[in-house]
Structure formats: structure tokens, C-alpha cells
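The record is given unchanged here:
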Amino acid sequence: MGNDGYLPWCNECRERMFEFYAKKYNDEDEAIDRLAMMFDTYVDDKLLEASEHSTASALKINTYMGRLNMRQHAGKSYDDVIDQKKKDALAAGDTKGTKVTLKMRKFWGTGLDEKDYLFLDEHYQNLITRHECKTAAQEILFKRIAKAELNCDKADATGDTKENKRSK
């Protein structure tokens, strides 16, 4: 969360801005998303849904912000929301706004992050330009080497090889 965990506005001002955006967009979830962008806080559909069941006297933004302070959301910001939206769009086949091409997505499969596609493609291109690649078996071998190198880099970054194997 940006600003070291503190919101830049008082509760009353936040509530007024929530009401303004809820009226403007005619959608409380959209208003919360807009405020989260302004505050650099995390937005999660499950949290929004859970905040729906708040008491009638409490504004949804207050319930949402209270639930956002739970441990599992610590350290998350609006950057995480943007990254997740990009990842979801890539998984759905939308490569607009990324350097990933449909050819790359078809070659490497679905469900990867943009940086993973780019790493794999760069590593694969490096291999096939330095070594002979005339058969399907060689292509598969280089493809597997690139994937193994990606997995090794992820394991090195996190220090946990078991977690990396579970995510694949």
C-alpha cells in the first residue's frame, strides 16, 4: 500500500469522494476501484463481494477498507491490480498493450506473464541463432531448455524450487 499504509485523506473526505464516484459511475465497486487507484491500494473482487454484506448504516467503502487491512493483503498496491489485469488479459488471449504476439502465445502456451513470454522468446531465439535447429526434435529441445532456464531463474529469485514446481 502506498504512503506507508496511511491514506492521504480523512475518513469523512474519503466517504464524500466515495459517494461522489458512486453517483458518477452508478456503481459502488467502480467507485472503490477509482479510490483505490487514487490511494494506491489493492482491489480484489472477493473483498468487494464480502463488503457487499455490510450493515445498512455503514458505507461499502468503510467495510472494504477494514477488510483490506487483513494480513493477506499486506504490501499489495494498485500496481498488483494492474499486473493482474494484464495477466488476465493475456490468459484470455488479449495481447493488446503488451509486447507479446499471438504467435508467441501460441508457441509457448497460455497462462504466462508478459515478462515470461519475453524471456522465453528471447532465450529461444538466442539458442536457435547460435545452434543448428533444423528438426522438430531440436526445436522441442531448445524450447524445453528455454522453459527450464525460466524455471531456474524463478527459483533463484524466490529461493524456493518446490513452490516453482507447484505453480507449473
